[in-house]
Amino acid sequence: MKIVLLGPPGAGKGTLAKDVAAMFTIPHISTGDMLRTAVKKGGATAEEADRLMRQGQLLPDDLILRIVKERLSQPDCAAGYILDGVPRTVAQAQGLEAIGATVEKAVLLLVPDQIVILRMTARRVCAQCGTGYNLISMPPKKEDVCDMCGGPVISRADDAPQTIADRLKIYHHETAPLADFYKGRGVLLPIVADSTPQKALAALLRALEKQSTPSTGIH
Length: 219
Ligand code: ADP
Known about the structure:
The protein is of the alpha/beta class. The chain has helices spanning 13-24, 31-41, 46-54, 61-72, 90-98, 113-122, 161-175, 178-184, 197-212; strands at 2-6, 28-30, 81-84, 105-110, 123-126, 132-134, 153-154, 188-192. The strands form 2 sheets. The chain has a 5-stranded parallel beta sheet with strand order 2-3-1-4-8, sandwiched between helices. Strands 6-5-7 form a 3-stranded antiparallel beta sheet. A hairpin with a 5-residue loop joins β5 and β6 (132-134). The protein binds adenosine-5'-diphosphate.
């Protein structure tokens, strides 16, 4: 199965992608995670990438397409993948088509802005191993300490309140038009994702099931 996950920052794409990847045994490809790893390693463009990401700005389409193309060419992607965080612009969606990266389902997570803001304000991450937490729905067992590795649990730089507002603005302007793009391709699957990760996963599985029912004749 070849899936892209669309939705505002804080919609729960990463959490859902991990579950779907495990269920369907396909790789979870997160541009955010790949970029954060690349920034940690350092190198030519790391400083500029870090600056843009801290501000919640998008990185250039050609850079994103280059790293995604590289990742998709690896053998584990042959049978399918779940893309999380890409495409984020119509140009990136067109770029994926140009490199032959098929999208069979474009899953759009529907979450109102107010909920996204609350979630991102409560979002935390382990600075050491990257495990994600949320102070409201999924807090670490011990305050500020990672359950997995004992590392410090912190706020992501781009989850500062003003940056959250900027990222939402960019989302509505640059990324939301992708819903129409994929609707036009006949692959859009909107699902309600405004409560728990478990409910979002159940909604996604129901939607996939419904679409693959032969009696509808619509795919
Ligand atoms: P979010 O939680 O906002 O969905 P991600 O972890 O997916 O964030 O990405 C973090 C940052 O990495 C983005 O704010 C952006 O700066 C950069 N980034 C990730 N994917 C892309 C992309 N496809 N195009 C441009 N920039 C990207």
